[in-house]
Request: fold
Amino acid sequence: MTRARGHFSARLFHFRVYFLLLVVFALVCLIGCHKKSPSKAEIRSVTDEIVAAAQRAAGHKLEIEIHPEEQVLQTGAMETKHESDSLYISLENPAQADTLERSLAEIARQHMLTVDESSSAKMMRVDFLRAGIRTHSIHIIVSLAGRPRPAAGAPSQAEAGPRLAIIIDDMGHDRAPADELLALPIPLTISILPHLPLSTEVAEEAFRRGDQVLLHLPMEPEAGSAGGPDGVTQEPIELRVGMSPGEVNATLAGMLETVPHAAGVNNHEGSRATADAPLMQALMPDLRARNLFFIDSRTTAATVAYRTAEQDGVPAASRKVFLDDTPTKEAVLAQLELAAKDAARDGSAIAIGHPHPATIAALAQEAPALESRGIRLVFASDLAR
Reply:
């Protein structure tokens, strides 16, 4: 009897162990299913729910754009590809954004997605994730009241009086200065470098907030200049002297793919490129074919870019003032005053700055004062002729 009881106890023990292993296996499978990346069909289904929620929040005046994306994640020596959707949603007021935010939280809960949210003045970004992998990036942009929306390739309505266009170069690197600049209640022309992690995102947000977007077109600098072969590292993709027209066209097309809504271009660096007549003659027909205007940043006195644009029928203009060669607030304020005087004397002027804290602070302080003096702040397209 004792041996039978012992045999039964051993069998019961083994059964319990076996049952426990089955439970653990089931839990692992369940967790694995939750961690598995959703399929393309699942992602599109969630996207449809987000669009429907946005339509309910915004009513009939919804503006939305969707960009399917592919993320490549590196785990050791292995690469995995994951689908995701980026949505850019334009709303008219913060109340609509609050309504949409609550709907997004419910959508995430129903689909067992985690939420990562960040926000700044008049902007919000909500990411949906599964197992740490992003499935959706939702950009909610509240347009500034009274800010005109520039149409690509078309100048906005011109009025009488001196006009000043302010271009902010080198955008696409950092999130914080982009948020600060896009929150300023003045018309800015945002010039965005291509092929950067934030190029497309900043272009979409700038356009939907009512600013104008330019492609900040990388071009070859002179040797020894800032950015030249003997100086700072050149851009990996840029227009270079000796390129054929086909190479110029392909390079430009690739850049524009990463900077949506570009109404025109201005050169980044380019002291050698803009002085090279064959290269500029290869570029201008491509700009004309795409209805893009050209702003010559005038990084060299030897530039032939503006003259070539005029000859080829491309609307063009030239920079008059650099705002922040000395990046202090006092220096930028002095340069803004110089730009205002140029505009008053000549009827118009273009000033170029960069996303430095001093530049942003000076613009926030001085722009209302300029407008109160009768200097109208306009987009670069207004001055391209």
Observations:
- The chain has two domains: 40-142, 163-383.
